[in-house]
Amino acid sequence: MRNPFRVSVIMLSAALTLSLLAFTQNARSQQLGPPKDRKATTAPAPLHDISGTWEPANGPNDGIQPYGVKAVPNDGKPEHQLPYTPHGLETYKSHKAPIGADEVLPTQYNDPRDRCEPLGFPRADLYYLRETQIMQNEYKVAILYQYGEAWRVIWTDGRKLPQLVDGGVLVGKEVREPRFYGYSVGKWVDDSTLVVQTVGMMPEDRVWLDLTGRPISDALHVEERFHRVNHDRLELTVTIDDPKMYTKPWIAMNKFPMRLEDPHRDVMEVYCSPSEMEKYNKLFANPTSAPEGDTPER
Amino acid sequence: MEKKTVLVAAVTVVLLSMSMSLFAHHGTSVFDTSKTLTMKGNVTEWDWSNPHCLLQFDVKNNEVGQVVHWIAETQNPGNMVYAGWAKASFKPGDEVTVTLLPAKNGRPFGRINQVVLPNGKTLDANKGTLTKNDSAGASGGAKSDNYSKQ
Q1: What is the mean pLDDT of residues A136-144?
Q2: What distance in Å separates the CA atoms of residue A256 and residue A130, rounded to the nearest whole number?
Q3: Which of B8, B23, B61, B81 is the most buried (most CB within 10 A)?
């Protein structure tokens, strides 16, 4: 026979436990913003949170930036001429780009990308910025780029930006090597804007800025502003400051809009495979570049 | 008749402008962007690979019995999934009708605008990059978004 008092105690305990769980969950939601496992809304931006899977709000081509950086495409228009230094212009002219105002035939390309070199930073922002996963905790923000399945870490733990020195960067008293994706630190400048500074990237013979062959050097300093406008909208602004290549800083992306994707989205891989590249060049790129009259090799 | 010509020209211009702007790997310098060719052939190979997918197919000239082997590219798999293309879209022997931008040098190469499959379904190669008002929406439009739940 059941004891009514015992049953009551069990039911009360269960109710209290559920209430406590609900309260904790609710408090956490208020603290961190709306849960991601929900259809995107125009709810306010959560506090200090840019995590999520993001895609270009105006369609993938907006992020591919096939004609060069979004804010200043390399289309030959005078207003899109960059403020090159003499060395910057010389370096640009040495790049044989697959697209843009000075596009060449496929057999002449010398884009590091076509040798399956890492895109590096900031090209990861400025070429093929497609489905981009951002994860964060209290110490750092990690960005997972779709192209090349590359990632980088932005430290938000209060550390200082490393100082540029000959041969790399100074981290504390240690000179560290240049990296394809550099050294990044970020700081929240308001409730919904993370400003990121990055230095220590690879030298000019290893990386390009964009698909049209604009140059960057190891003197580069990049500022990114990630501004979460609301729950499902993020804007990215990227400023390039490279005194070796450009006479003044300039904006490569200006409030580039990205929208939040379904958190269950399984992002497809986009990679560079040397064997697939070789096959493509042999079967397609080389024969289409050949002059009329040559016999194609199959 | 005149209206039809204008319509065809308009569609061609739209297709060309789309295809010129959407290819991320390289530009259009090797293609004759002033015209498109449409041909019927049989698939010999379909490479679902980077930096571009390649469709190989044989086109038979019935008058002289000659077979010409064509190779045509699309965008990369990461883009093509948005347009409903897949690794399993073609198999050897499939009879397809291909519309493409031909290579400038006159060789049997091109950039695909669309392919009509044996079942009559059309695969549009330029649909891979969505416009602002595209109905695919925030989930991206590609199939197989999620692994099945365990």
Answers
A1: 98
A2: 12
A3: B23
